[in-house]
């Protein structure tokens, strides 16, 4: 997006890049080059300040270890760590690219096969009561379902653009351009709590770091995200005064709560070794089954 910025008598045109924190400017040959503070600090001062803080804190910590602790090798260790982390980031990126490609392909197959549309129809009555301002059949409902499906598979990188499209679609129904609607707030909370049935990305990270059993965290993540989703939904329902005692809503919530409570009660009877074995078996079976 091009804009004209005026600084005293100097006029120049600038292009702001939305994907990072720099701007490119074209100055007339006769105009003195006076930089606006925004160009020096960037378009996103909070993020720039955060990154600058990382480097400042690291430098101060290294100086303290050198001057106070007498650790003369701290700077060599920092340089070595920079190159090691650069190598690790590339390795993680390559493995993440392959993992996302595989599971996004499965998600695309499910979408083409009509599974996502079927899920939208199944969850449609629930969404219509939790988000009453969204009319039936609105495209936002399909995007919300697709976002939840990506989150359920642990594809958080893929769920982000889908969630942005869903928020943009919900914004079309929002009468206010400066405040989030109730539907947007509820969607944001449920998206953040993110019920995760199969944390594929976490499995990938653990496998890349050499974990002997990457799926061992399946049960803890499943229980934690289930509880966080329920708490998030109840909190938003209380603030927005949603009718959770509606028979349709109860038809969705009660079976899920009973199933989760029964499962947690069963897990409470198992030893630590049995829990680890069960988590590994369920994680691998779910991964293989999908």
UniProtKB/TrEMBL annotation:
Keyword Membrane: yes
Location of the Nucleoside transporter/FeoB GTPase Gate domain: 96-204
Transmembrane residue ranges: 50-76, 88-110, 185-205, 217-237, 249-282
Pfam families: Gate
Record keywords, A-Z: Membrane, Transmembrane, Transmembrane helix
Name of this protein: Bifunctional spore maturation protein, fused SpmA/SpmB
């Amino acid at each position: 997006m091009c804009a004209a910025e005026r600084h005293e008598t100097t006029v120049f045109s600038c292009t702001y890049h939305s994907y990072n924190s720099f701007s490119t400017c074209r100055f007339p040959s006769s105009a003195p080059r006076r930089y606006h503070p925004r160009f020096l600090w960037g378009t996103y001062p909070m993020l720039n300040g955060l990154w600058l803080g990382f480097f400042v804190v690291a430098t101060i910590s290294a100086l303290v270890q050198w001057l106070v602790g007498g650790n003369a090798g701290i700077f060599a260790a920092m340089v070595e760590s920079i190159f090691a982390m650069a190598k690790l980031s590339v390795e993680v990126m390559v493995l993440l690219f392959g993992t996302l490609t595989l599971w996004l392909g499965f998600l695309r197959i499910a979408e083409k096969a009509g599974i996502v549309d079927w899920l939208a129809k199944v969850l449609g009555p629930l969404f219509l009561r939790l988000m009453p301002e969204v009319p039936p059949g609105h495209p936002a409902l399909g995007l919300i379902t697709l976002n939840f499906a990506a989150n359920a598979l642990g594809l958080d990188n893929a769920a982000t653009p889908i969630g942005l499209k869903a928020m943009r679609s919900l914004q079309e129904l929002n009468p206010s351009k400066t405040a989030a609607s109730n539907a947007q707030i509820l969607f944001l909370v449920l998206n953040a709590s993110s019920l995760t049935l199969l944390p594929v990305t976490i499995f990938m990270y653990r496998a890349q770091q050499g974990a002997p059993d990457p799926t061992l965290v399946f049960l803890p993540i499943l229980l934690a995200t289930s509880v966080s989703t329920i708490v998030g939904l109840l909190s938003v329902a209380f603030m927005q005064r949603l009718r959770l005692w509606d028979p349709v809503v109860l038809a969705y919530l009660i079976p899920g709560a009973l199933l989760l409570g029964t499962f947690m009660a069963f897990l409470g009877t198992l030893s630590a070794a049995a829990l680890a074995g069960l988590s590994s078996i369920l994680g691998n079976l779910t991964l293989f089954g999908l």
